[in-house]
Amino acid sequence: MKKLFCMLLIAALALCGAAFAEDYAIGTDTAFRPFEFTDETGTLVGIDVDILAAIAEDQGFTYTIEALGWDASIAACQAGQKDGMIAGASITNARKESGWIFSDGYYNATQSMAVAKGSDITGFDGLDGKSVAVKIGTMSKDYADSLAEQYNFTVVTFESSPDVYQAVIGGQCVACFDDTPIMADYIKVNGVPLQLVDGTANEGADYGFAVFSPDKQELVDKFNAGLANIKANGTYDEIIAKYLG
User: For residues 25 and 81, is the Cβ–Cβ distance under 8 A?
Assistant: First the structure.
């Protein structure tokens, strides 16, 4: 009888643990390959997606992830509809001061400029009096803004990276700024007629997982702990190699 009671108690505790397991709602971008994108089967994949999955498994929490888009993910987090976002978000002091709470950095990326293939623009000096395309609310926009007055060009914003690239391909803008690995991957995979301009990259910044309320600090702590573990056991390197070689 005592043995049966113990077995029932263990089962009940296990059920309670399952009932109270954390189930987080995470937002991400729609098209930021190779960090998040939809593959040919319609499945959301990418570096961010795989890192989050590995960390969740390591830390024992469950989650749902939804590709809302950059601005929509931020808004959903701020409104309490999502617990956090992972979308290649660069860690900056300006964002921290405006309420972003970041994890440790999980990838360092530079921003640089690209032009149409065959363009005679070889540097920022070639932008005088012209328009460049950037994705709204990004480090790439900040980078372009920081150069606009010095090199006398106009910054035009778009909602997604593919829209940014199309603006250059279609002739609406003569150049674009975006995260270097994003553009390099997009050009390689899609064969688009763009080329990176040597010597235009900045120093870069780390990407971080982000929440927007101190109440979500526990999720950040779990992300940091899991990130350290998957780096130590080699899973992180496998994920990066899978997408970037």
Answer: yes
Angle in degrees, CA 132, 72, 181, rounded to 5:
45
Neighbour-count burial of 14, counting CB atoms closer than 10 A to its CB (0-12 exposed, 13-18 middle, 19+ buried): exposed
Provide the 3-class DSSP secondary structure of residue 173: coil
Which tokens in the block code for residue 100?
Answer: 């972003």
- pLDDT tens-digit map of 79-120: 999 999 999 998 999 999 999 999 999 999 999 999 999 999
3-state SS of 7-56 is HHHHHHHHHHHHHCCCEEEEEECCCECCCEEECCCCCEECHHHHHHHHHH
- Domain extent listing, the chain: 22-108+206-244, 111-202
Q: Does domain 22-108+206-244 have CATH number 3.40.190.10?
A: yes
Q: Which amino acid is at 20?
A: F
pTM for this structure? Answer: 0.72
- The residues near 200 (Cβ < 8 Å, ≥ 6 apart) are 112, 113, 123, 124
Q: Are 159 and 166 within 8 A, CB to CB?
A: no
Range list of β-strands (E), 149-241: 154-158, 175-179, 194-196, 205-207, 210-211
Domain 111-202: top CATH class: alpha beta
Torsion 215-220-223-229 (CA) sign: negative
Residue stretches of the chain with pLDDT short of 70: 1-22
Answer yes or no: are the C-beta atoms of 134 and 140 closer than 8 Å: yes
Q: In what order do the strands lie in the sheet with 111-116?
A: 154-158, 131-135, 175-179, 111-116, 194-196
